[in-house]
Amino acid sequence: MKLNQDCLTAIFEFCDINSLYSYLLVNRFWCKTAIPILWRDPWIITKTLNSKRAKIFFNTIFQLLPEESSDLLKSQGIDVPQRRKPLFDYIGFCKYLRKLDREVFYEYNDEQVKLLRQEIFKQFISNCSKLVLFDTTDVEHTVLEIPRAVTIFSDLYELHCKSTDNASLFFGLARICKFIEKFYIKHTIPNLGLAELIKNQLKIKYLKIYGSRIDDGEICSAILKHSHTLIVVSIPIEKDLPFLNDLILGLNNIQKLELTHGVYDSEVYKQLTFPSYPNLQVIDLNLSYSVASIAAYSIILKSHNLQIIVLRFNAYNYSENILSAISQCCPKLKCLKFYLDKGYLPIFRKVLINCQLLEGIFIDTNRKYLSQHGIELLKMLTTSAPLGLYKVHIGNFSYFKMECLKTFFENWKGRKPLLLSSLEVEVEDKKSDNIERLDDLINHYKNVGVIKEYGDDAVILNDNFERFY
Description:
Layout: H1 5-12, H2 17-23, H3 28-38, H4 51-64, H5 67-75, E1 96-97, H6 110-127, E2 133-135, H7 149-153, E3 158-162, H8 167-176, E4 182-186, H9 192-199, E5 206-210, H10 217-224, E6 232-236, H11 241-250, E7 256-260, H12 266-271, E8 282-285, H13 289-302, E9 308-311, H14 319-329, E10 335-339, H15 345-354, E11 360-364, H16 371-383, E12 391-394, H17 402-412, E13 418-421, H18 432-447, E14 451-455, H19 459-466
Parallel strand pairs: 1-2, 2-3, 3-4, 4-5, 5-6, 6-7, 7-8, 8-9, 9-10, 10-11, 11-12, 12-13, 13-14
Helix pairs in contact: 1-3, 2-3, 8-9, 9-10, 10-11, 13-14, 14-15, 16-17
């Protein structure tokens, strides 16, 4: 049975970029189906460090440039391949316009790179049917003067930018764009144009701010306008207490909240007021441990729909309170990333027993984690964890005896096969023959269906465990 193009497209949407490239060579029908998907966001190949593919990509773009652009580039010493008629309307498929990294054009000087960016962007803006994502890095405001710019930017959905980018460009986009829902901002200095752009949107849902400063009154005011529509927020904690409290109190529909390193001021954390978040499903805290623990405890205690909790700090004496809150208030929890000290194993058992939807645990420990506690932890996973648990990472600062691991795998039989990250064996088991024994052990339990996948440094778990949006 031959699949029609709609079915084949639906299948190809789930394929990785390497597979899609190989499909180009199957037949004309597969090639015709794969090309629009590959060219929807072609810039991704410049991020993969695949220099050969990047060169082919830019050679294709150069061949599509109008004659006047080719002549201009040649006059500035830039080699441009001979123009030819393309097999497809490649640029017409593009929906993403990302920044052109300087490293891609390493053989050219800064002025040549600036000219290349100008002509390439001009070609894309002139020939795209519609843009979904735009990265303003190193883009001049004159791009908005290109014919059709208003048309292709009018339905822009996602913006990546820096507060150091051209303010005139932001003011121009503010007049054109009203429906941007996702903002990814590296903020370091005030920018009135960026504030105006944020303020003019009708409904912002996703906001991620990088950097260490948000002491910008105009930006803060613009963000607060959208607090009730935001569903995903990632923001550095700063000293601007009134803004932070107003934002935190206004996040009525928040589903994912990520708080990151900012200026460490314990008094700020202590004064923050976290309300009940009925729709909150994910928290991700990467902060100073003592004050972040206060925030984590407050949020967990009041949020009963949490599915993913990522705590990137050692809570020390706060672990008991946080784990207790999780065991009592998080019946829907699916994934937990946490720093577990040996003294809190009993309360962790309550988490395993009470959180029956748990699928993944990502535990960090320290080198003081003694053998008997490691045995206790592994035994706890087989006796107390819900049957749906199968993603397991126990930090590489903990050591296990070979016999302890063998017992754990034997006891895991009959449960869902493990996605397991790398394990450390004890010093006396680190001789070469025992390292080989560990590999043999892993392979044996793969063959009998106890382990599905095993990888170093939680490679197996990273995509599955923490991806939410």
